[in-house]
UniProtKB/TrEMBL annotation:
GO terms for molecular function: NAD(P)H dehydrogenase (quinone) activity. It is an enzyme of class 1 (oxidoreductase). Belongs to the WrbA family. It comes from Vibrio rhizosphaerae. Keywords: Flavoprotein, FMN, Oxidoreductase. This is NAD(P)H:quinone oxidoreductase. The keyword Oxidoreductase applies. InterPro entries: Flavodoxin/NO_synth, Flavodoxin_CS, Flavoprotein-like_sf, Flavoprotein_WrbA-like, FMN_Rdtase-like_dom. The keyword Transcription regulation does not apply. Residues 5-181 form the Flavodoxin-like domain. Its EC number is 1.6.5.2. Pfam families: FMN_red. The gene is wrbA. Its cofactor is FMN. PANTHER family: FLAVODOXIN-RELATED PROTEIN WRBA-RELATED, FLAVOPROTEIN-LIKE PROTEIN YCP4-RELATED.
Length: 193
């Protein structure tokens, strides 16, 4: 039996997927927790198979926590993720996600390309679902020294080369995953899976 933490992401060129994998490493480092890497379909649908399975609403309903990531698209989350949340009304009506911890992460191709606005706007549907938002506290030393990605709102990556994370970006993503998993266990010590 383990706490299942969904790591949901959409990635166009691999950078957001690389962050998702580091967050999953952080989650899996906490004894009793398991990261489920999931993605969403392209809009319009792509002919290429996804790198990870598509998230189902049943998996989301049954998760013990959520990490959600998107590349920066005009300072907001990518349309495929927005589409996924727009269809989540049945979970909202039932209150299935209330009091579950959640965090967000992003990547951009320019340093000031909208990372913080994307992280903040990704939090909005999660808050409407009653989820508890987890950030990165300044007690994490890498947050003070990073020269690329990483914010108190969530993990981030400045994609100078797609998918090649800096040491600080990897550290911050793993720490965010560990924090999310630890809080999940504290909030719901009775595992149901």
């Amino acid at each position: 039996m383990s706490h299942r933490i969904v790591v949901l992401y959409y990635s166009r060129h691999g950078s957001t997927r690389a962050l998702a994998r580091q967050i999953a490493r952080g989650i899996n480092a906490i004894s009793g927790c398991e990261a489920l890497l999931r993605t969403v379909p392209d809009i319009p649908p792509s002919a290429e198979p996804p790198s990870d399975p598509y998230l189902t609403y049943d998996e989301l309903k049954d998760c013990d926590g959520l990490a959600m990531g998107s590349p920066v698209w005009f300072g907001n989350m990518a349309a495929p993720l927005k589409h996924f949340w727009d269809a989540s009304t049945p979970l909202w009506i039932s209150g299935a996600l209330i009091d579950k911890p959640a965090c967000v992460f992003t990547s951009s191709s320019s340093l000031h390309g909208g990372q913080e606005t994307t992280l903040q706007t990704m939090q909005l549907p999660l808050q409407h679902h009653g989820m508890l938002i987890v950030g990165i506290p300044y007690s994490e030393p890498a947050l003070h020294t990073t020269q690329s990605g990483g914010t108190p709102y969530g993990a981030s990556h400045f994609a100078t080369v797609a998918g090649q994370l800096s040491t600080e970006e990897k550290t911050l993503a793993q720490q965010l995953g560990q924090r999310l998993a630890s809080l999940s266990m504290r909030l719901n010590p009775a595992v149901k899976h």
